[in-house]
Each structure stands twice: as C-alpha cells, then as structure tokens.
Amino acid sequence: MSTSPTILIVPGLRDHVEEHWQTILERKLPKACSVAPLEHDKLSCAARIEALQQAIAKIDGPLVLVAHSGGVMIAVHWAQKYDRPIQGALLAAPADLESPLPAGYPTLDALRDNGWLPVPRSRLPFPSIVAASTNDPLADLERVKQYAADWGSELVDIGAVGHLNPAAGFGEWPQAEELLGRLV
Fold first, then answer.
1. What pLDDT score was predicted for residue 170?
2. What are the record keywords, sorted (predicted)?
3. Residue 50, Cβ neighbours under 10 Å: how many?
4. In CATH, what number does 6-183 get?
5. Distance between CA atoms of 176 and 111, rounded to whole angstroms?
6. Which pLDDT value is given to residue 3?
7. Which residues does residue 90 pair with via DSSP β-bridges, in sequence order?
8. Which pLDDT score, from 0 to 100, does residue 2 have?
9. If you count Cβ atoms within 10 Å of the first and of the last residue's Cβ in the chain, which end, N or C, has fewer?
10. Distance of alpha carbon 172 from alpha carbon 184, whole angstroms
C-alpha cells in the first residue's frame, strides 16, 4: 500500500495571498502545507531556496511540489542544489525572470544581484508539469515552452488565464487538482 504524498506549496515572490489558488488548494487538501513566508531577504534567491529546503526537511515520505510564478524558479534552483527524491512538481505560470518584468516587479539588475539569474535550464530530476498561460504578462508563451523543454517537463496549455492569480480573476483553480492527480 503506497502512502499518499504530501503536497508542498511553493508561493511566488508575493508570498502567501489569501485569495490565491495555492492558498485555497492548501486549505482544501488533507496533506498539504506551504513554505513559510520570509521575514527578511525577501528578494534573495538563496534565502528562498533555503526556506524551501527547510520545509522539505520537515516532510517524511513522498512529496509533490506545487509552485507558482517565482516559486517555480525557486523550485528549479532548489533542484540544482539538493537531491531529495520528489514524486513530481506542478509548475504553474513560471515568471520569465530573464526578460524585463512589468512595473512593480523587480528589475533584471535586482534579480541578477539577488541570485535569480541565470535561470537553471538543466533537466529536472523528477517528473513535472508546466502549466502555461497563453497571455501571461510575466512570461511569453514561447519562453515558457522553452523552459518546459529544458526542464524535461510536460507542457500543458491552460489557455488565456493571465498570470493565474487573483488579479487575473483566479482564486480557486480546479484544474490544479486535475494536474496534481496526474503526478500523484
């Protein structure tokens, strides 16, 4: 008899947003938890990777990651540094941190200075699904397709859903559970 995996939510740079689909999913699933928000060094990629590692270290048994936006980049950076077995990862709406982001987001210089660049491009050591929006203001679809190919991820076109966040009209995102089912 196999043990059902723990679902670990990896939020993006805005951390925990009450009405975000990840927060709703965490409340809904029985074996779900989230990476704790950072109090300091919020833009530090290294601090984010270590926060993810601390959360993972507390989990015994099978584990599935559910990352969104900058959280996707945290997960792929983590995979370059650590080798704990991961059953799978749902990587939703990855932000393209290698291209200028809209106003209100970190600049390329700030991202570079804080360790986010370059974005890791090697194959992930676990199965993964990249859920890509066709009209994401934080990532061109062609760039996301290239990330998915580089990471060895299955690409799933989730349509014109913006950045898949409350600003784009997404609180609950039922398709997340469907895609998770394919990894579990």
1. 87
2. Hydrolase
3. 15
4. 3.40.50.1820
5. 28
6. 80
7. 66, 129
8. 57
9. N
10. 20
Q: How far is residue 86's CA from residue 120's CA, in Å, rounded to a whole number? A: 18
What does DSSP say about strands 88-92 and 63-68: parallel, antiparallel, or unpaired? Answer: parallel
Q: Domain locations in the chain?
A: 6-183
Q: Which long-range contacts (CB under 8 A, 24 or more apart) does 39-44 make?
A: 42/13, 42/15, 43/13, 43/106, 43/110, 43/111, 43/114, 44/114, 44/115
Give all strands (DSSP E) within the chain, no chain letters. 6-10, 32-34, 63-68, 88-92, 128-132, 154-157
Task: Note the pTM of the prediction, 2 decimals.
Answer: 0.96
Closest C-alpha among 89, 116, 112 to residue 13: 116
- Residue whose structure tokens are 């290239």: 146
By C-alpha distance, which of 181, 84, 182, 70 is closest to 136? 70
Say if residues 52 and 59 touch (Cβ distance below 8 Å). Answer: no
Average pLDDT, the chain: 94
| Integer Cα distance of 178 and 147 in angstroms | 22
Strand arrangement of the beta sheet that strand 154-157 belongs to: 32-34, 6-10, 63-68, 88-92, 128-132, 154-157
Tell me what pLDDT residue 1 has: 41
Alpha-carbon distance values, 78 to 29, 67, 81 (Å): 24, 12, 5
Residue in this structure with the two tokens 């200028």, named with its chain if needed: 100
